[in-house]
Design brief:
The protein is an alpha+beta fold. It has 2 domains: 87 residues; 195 residues, Sandwich (Jelly Rolls), CATH 2.60.120. It is built from 10 helices and 11 strands. Strands 1, 2, 3, 4, 6, 9 and 11 form a 7-stranded antiparallel sheet that branches. It has a 4-stranded antiparallel sheet with strand order 5-10-7-8, with no helix packed on it. Helix 1 runs parallel beside helix 3. The longest helix is centred in the first third of the chain and has 31 residues. The protein starts with 5 loop residues before the first helix and ends in a 9-residue tail after the last helix.
């Protein structure tokens, strides 16, 4: 008579769990948690949802254990299986959650939601990594002139959510820009010729007044970069780690990694990500943006024209580095 009654749904889920029908029980528990998310002010639903989440965690542990044993007998090995199958298994059992790209300004459809990209998509990575000693040497020389390192976040009254309080809270995140919003920083570039030479073959995100952004990104001791997403999903971000003390980490979606000096990686910054430096030393990476490899030359030309058209309409240009 009341198929959507949350109390009845919880009772049914508990009964199914007691009968060891774990997939069916998980479905009813998940249904109640979604109901609560759609009615955040309903205290009764919250109580039931809390019960559902706790029960769902136990169900998922049991289900994951069963599937792990079953798949092992079927020949599954997480060390040799495709990474996305292992990822899918963790999502199915609730061990991980789904993260979707959520660009804050412009969404380009039909691009795959990839957290960290495989190296084979970028033929220039090895050459860039081979230049790490030269790039690191130029960084160290630049660090002797601390006044050239500026806060990564800049206050801009025309950009929503970009206020002085937010900027002041991130003084541990500094940058030495070589290119900023597509504009070359001539004095800094003159001090880092080998760094620029190493980027010569890289398909940089070149859009007038938008990109590329090329910088030494500095995270001071104890600093954290709160979870956030980028503006546009037609570009990707590359990190080439240079100075990496222990107790530093970086997360994109479900995947948490440690930086390793000289080992670059590429990620989609429109997927929720964060960084931290829990050490007492400074962490520095070379950071730059590139076009997504799935885009054709025609698409990059059209996207460039589109972004220029946006800028031509308004004197306010939202920077991508927020």
């Amino acid at each position: 008579m009341e198929p959507g009654n949350p109390n009845a749904l919880i009772m049914k889920a508990d009964l199914l769990a007691a009968q060891n029908d774990l997939p069916a029980a998980a479905g009813f528990y998940s249904y109640v948690t979604r109901m609560a998310e759609q009615s955040p002010g309903n205290s009764e639903l919250k109580r039931l949802s809390d019960h559902a989440r706790e029960a769902l965690e136990k169900v998922n542990v049991a289900l994951y254990g069963h599937l792990d044993s079953y798949l092992e007998q079927a020949g599954y090995n997480p060390d040799t299986a495709p990474a996305r199958f292992t990822h899918a298994l963790a999502l199915l059992t609730g061990k991980k959650q789904v993260y979707h790209p959520r660009p804050r300004a412009f969404f380009y459809p039909e691009l795959p939601p990839i957290q960290f990209f495989e190296r084979q998509s970028f033929s220039w990575l090895a050459a860039l990594e081979s230049a790490t000693p030269d790039i690191a040497a130029e960084l160290v020389a630049a660090m002797e002139q601390q006044q050239d390192f500026v806060p990564y976040l800049q206050s801009d009254a025309r950009v929503a959510g970009n206020d002085v309080k937010k900027v002041n809270a991130n003084q541990g995140w500094k940058a030495f820009f070589l290119y900023r919003d597509g504009q070359p920083q001539a004095e800094n570039i003159a001090r880092c010729p080998k760094t620029m030479a190493a980027l010569d073959k890289v398909p940089l995100f070149a859009v007038p007044d938008r990109g590329p952004n090329i910088l030494f990104s500095v995270l001071h001791p104890g600093a954290k970069i709160a979870p956030h997403t980028g503006f546009i999903n037609t570009r990707l971000i590359c990190h080439l780690p240079l100075l990496v003390p222990p107790e530093c980490g970086f997360r994109v979606g479900n995947d948490t990694r440690a930086w390793e000096p000289g080992k670059a990686f590429v990620f989609d910054d429109t997927i929720n990500h964060e960084a931290w430096n829990n050490s007492d030393q400074t962490r520095v990476v070379l950071l730059f943006d590139i076009w997504r490899p799935e885009l054709s030359e025609q698409e990059t030309a059209l996207i460039t024209s589109l972004l220029q058209g946006v800028d031509s309409y308004s004197p306010s240009k939202q920077r991508w580095n927020v």
